[in-house]
Specification:
3 helices; alpha+beta; elongated; 5 strands; Outer membrane lipoprotein SlyB; single chain; 30% strand; signal
Length: 155
């Protein structure tokens, strides 16, 4: 029975960490086969940032904590305790699972990224935040690519 509990907890924890990454190398299906635009820009400044996931299964939504609490409470009540003790076991295991699930989702939904300030040839400054798949340096010439899901920088 404990094997089932740990297997289910591992699956729920893994699912909660599947947040969308802000990678310049990943396109959404809605962006494919659609016209976008690109213009050359010059990097002014690059700063390291942390990107927190904002999908329905990210920590900010509260869904991982709720799912973990429910699963922990049900499994705790069925696996641990007999009689009235199972309600206490369910409450304690549900609380612990909820806290652990929320902490795990918070950590798993974070990714490294860059905030890049670029200057267009017309003098306008634009800020783009994206995943740390490509590293840029000040003075470098890049392409600012616009698509349905936003802007990205690429060489």
């Amino acid at each position: 029975m404990f094997k089932r509990f740990f297997l289910l907890f591992a699956v729920v924890s893994a699912i909660t960490g599947c947040a969308a990454q802000a990678s310049p190398n990943v396109y959404h299906g809605s962006d494919s086969m659609r016209m976008g635009s690109a213009e050359q820009v010059t990097v002014v400044r690059v700063r390291n940032v942390t990107i927190a996931g904002d999908s329905i299964l990210s920590a900010s939504s509260g869904v991982p904590a709720i799912l973990s609490t429910l699963v922990g409470a049900v499994l705790g009540a069925r696996v641990i305790g007999n009689g009235d003790g199972r309600y206490i076991a369910g409450a304690l295991s549900g609380t612990a699972a909820g806290v652990i699930g929320q902490v795990a989702a918070t950590q798993l939904s974070k990714s490294d990224g860059f905030e890049v300030i670029v200057r267009t040839d017309s003098g306008r400054q634009v800020v783009v935040t994206q995943g740390a798949d490509q590293k840029f340096v000040s003075g470098e010439r890049l392409y600012l690519v616009s698509s349905g899901s936003g802007y990205r920088l690429t060489r």
